[in-house]
User: Which sequence fits this backbone?
């Protein structure tokens, strides 16, 4: 059987050419109409979702996956609200990033433009269909979406609602193309649509990320793991440190900006850890020998893997180090380059930590949980990049654009 | 046999940690000492080069490759001058790209930082060893370099000179690590040094680029082909158009920003092409039927491939189109996204061309040859990106950096 994917990709590419030059008002109008339509056609979406849920039940799908798959009227309303919010954000397209005149009179401007076709491969959650499509359209891109087989009926319903609304606003329906074929072969083919997909953003777990690294020939951005540390310095405000660790670990343990590992300066370990343990009631602590000694054994022993593990659960590894150098070395060895925090009142420590720790975000005297597009004020987020090219840290609308140079002359040659 | 590559990579990574926080003065001093040393030790470099040339002669290496391989005292002096120039450029590291305060009092700054380890795979020219290492050090990175087997003795000599100079300036020698193993297996292994190479920049022909796309698991930037067009509009200044096409095609035909294809509005084809043909004496013109008709046959017939070919030679394809839409469509079909120029006096045409043509650079009333780091005023260039992520167009020092977010609070939690 011939794959439909190249044809779908070409449709998205054609739409991208149109969307790239639409005025912001048309893109915003499409998003607002789409939000309206999600409200009006909510039952249709829920019916489609019910069919996915039935299939999931027959397949004995684990409860956590079913929960991610399940839509409710509230969840559909949240998708609509998301589109409305995105419509209200500032347009990233057309910004002159910088511009200058050369001695020969050439005017050079670097202008922000859409990427073109943004490909997204994602897992269970059907709301990603709406969220990702909205961010792509707002930033002047076409979205080529490939969700999971479990959510295909829901995704088709949501995509249908959005595409209808787009057309009413004069935006090509193919600004959102959903790939129906959810086979494994199609995923690999998707990652190799050179010349069609301008950037691939995988949204999913480690096995999806590994498959992208191994197979993709199109450019991609990795939304990676967060093995986030808090380093409590000798000069820390210890009450502040307790609050920051408790918030980082317990406010939402399943997300990538949760605190996974605590590093404590030896000089205050004996005071700080006994303060922390009762505040982390319900959290399993796994410490090295010195951490355990500081709390008289109220901690299990960390094994070799603990310090490199992103638990995504109510578990925290704890290491005691001799000084800032050892803390930075520990983080360099075990960190994933997502978010690393320090709690200190010592300016020199704050400066060295922020300069020497290599991560998308370094946080001084605040929770690791702030690494997030909303918390940064981006209004929306397509993911958090842990790679260094193109985008690093929370990715908003700006990160869904590229630039082009516009060079204006009066007949110059060289 | 165990590969030495992971160990070499780890050495570069360790050096990158140190280089990233060195003051600019130390990096500049190392570059200036390296330039001095290239002058002083020129004979050593030329002796090493002579051994490569001997091997090349024994292997019946083509003359063009031997020419790229050959060093002279002038070429070594040019490498030294390049390092001196780079030392004098502004430091890209430490720039606060943007910064703001959130309602909760968090201060967020996006700060420019080095990438870390820049991996470069390159072909014949030994001067790349010095040029690339210099740009990497200036931008606070370590360079992990893998040249070709033909140039290995020259590359080792140059790397040795630079590494000695680095140490005298207090910069780790391993800020330049040259890979000795130039086997094909080692190239593939190089492209898969995850966790060690932060960005891979291949410098070479199509087969190298294809190998990177197919094998690389580390992030990379493609320095791609340039099938650059000039579109001569109905409202063009035809004398200016002749000058721009002649310059674009003939000033240096072998480079990626050379003009490869001419697109002419039908309304002026009969006037313009007869003006152009004598000015392009010595250039083979391959035209479509209307182009040939306009010059009474002083042009060979373009076949199906001509419009997609980057000749890198004194050959130019010529198409006549009905209007701007057709010109934009032609360029979208055949262009490589490098540089596309328009010659026009019509503001609306200039605006539509620059908005609708999807390329790293669009040029209005000037030669395509201006897409170049030096011509843009970057002072130096590591390549020209034809991809859309991270860097698009000429890449200078700034494009060899990434950013990190530094978030400063007073105990905030969420």
Assistant:
């Amino acid at each position: 059987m011939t794959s439909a994917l190249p044809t779908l990709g070409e449709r998205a590419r054609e739409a991208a050419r149109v969307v790239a030059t639409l005025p912001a008002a048309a893109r915003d109008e499409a998003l607002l109409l789409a939000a309206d339509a999600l409200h009006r056609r909510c039952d249709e979406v829920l019916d489609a979702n019910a069919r996915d849920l039935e299939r999931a039940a027959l397949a004995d799908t684990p409860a956590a996956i079913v929960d991610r798959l399940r839509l409710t009227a509230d969840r559909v309303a949240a998708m609509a609200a998301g589109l409305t919010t995105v419509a209200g954000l500032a347009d990233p397209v057309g910004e002159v990033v910088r511009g200058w005149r050369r001695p020969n009179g050439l005017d050079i401007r670097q202008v922000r433009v859409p990427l073109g076709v943004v490909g997204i491969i994602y897992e269970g959650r059907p709301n990603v269909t709406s969220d990702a499509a909205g961010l792509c359209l707002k930033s002047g891109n076409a979205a080529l979406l490939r969700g999971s087989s479990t959510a295909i009926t829901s995704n088709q319903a949501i995509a249908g609602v959005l595409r209808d609304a787009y057309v009413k606003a004069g935006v090509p329906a193919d600004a959102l193309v959903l790939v129906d074929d959810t086979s494994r072969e199609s995923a690999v083919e998707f990652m190799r649509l050179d010349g069609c997909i301008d950037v691939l953003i995988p949204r999913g777990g480690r096995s999806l990320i590994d498959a992208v690294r191994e197979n993709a020939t199109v450019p991609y951005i990795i939304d990676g793991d967060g093995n986030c540390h808090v380093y409590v310095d000798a000069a820390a405000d210890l009450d502040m440190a307790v609050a920051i660790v408790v918030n980082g670990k317990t406010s939402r343990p399943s997300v990538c900006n949760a605190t996974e590992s605590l590093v404590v300066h030896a000089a205050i370990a004996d005071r700080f850890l006994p303060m922390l343990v009762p505040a982390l009631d319900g959290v399993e602590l796994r410490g090295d020998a010195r951490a355990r000694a500081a709390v008289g054994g109220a901690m299990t022993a960390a094994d070799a893997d603990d310090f490199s593990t992103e638990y995504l659960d109510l578990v925290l590894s704890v290491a005691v180090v001799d000084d800032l150098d050892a803390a930075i070395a520990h983080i360099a060895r075990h960190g994933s380059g997502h978010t690393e925090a320090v709690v200190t009142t010592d300016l020199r420590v704050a400066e060295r930590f922020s300069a020497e720790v290599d991560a998308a975000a370094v946080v001084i005297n605040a929770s690791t949980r702030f690494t997030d597009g909303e918390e940064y004020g981006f209004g929306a987020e397509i993911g958090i990049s842990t790679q260094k090219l193109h985008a690093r840290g929370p990715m908003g609308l700006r990160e869904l654009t590229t630039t082009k140079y516009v060079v204006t002359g009066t007949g110059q040659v060289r």
In short: The first helix of chain B runs from residue 5 to 20. Chain B touches chain A through 67 residues (CB under 8 Å). The mean pLDDT of chain B is 95.
